[in-house]
Specification:
The protein has helices at 36-46, 53-63, 68-84, and strands at 2-3, 7-12, 15-20, 32-34, 88-89. The protein is an alpha+beta fold. The chain has a single domain, classed as Arc Repressor Mutant, subunit A, CATH 1.10.10. The strands form two sheets. Strands 2-3-4 form a three-stranded antiparallel beta sheet. Helix 1 (36-46) crosses helix 2 (53-63) and helix 2 (53-63) crosses helix 3 (68-84). The longest helix has 17 residues, at 68-84. The N and C termini lie close together (5 Å). The mean pLDDT is 91.
Amino acid sequence: MKIKEGFELQNVCGEYIIVPTGIENVDYSKIISLNETAAYLWEGCCTLDSFSIDTMVELLTREYEVDEKTAREDCEKIFACWVEMGLAEE
């Protein structure tokens, strides 16, 4: 997987949001907000040519004091959400 082009993370008044940068990605019915941890994962995944849930777990456990099982459960949810919302693609 990789982060789909045309989206970028911005910090607006202390809130992390995903902003579409291409007209094909504009959907004014949704605002995609990320917590600090998800924003960290987004930034980490954006620097990679491709990523997987395993990659995300590695990023998360390296940065935060979280066990691998909890990290994997959280990353699976985030990963599925990004795919469902069209933010990540093969």
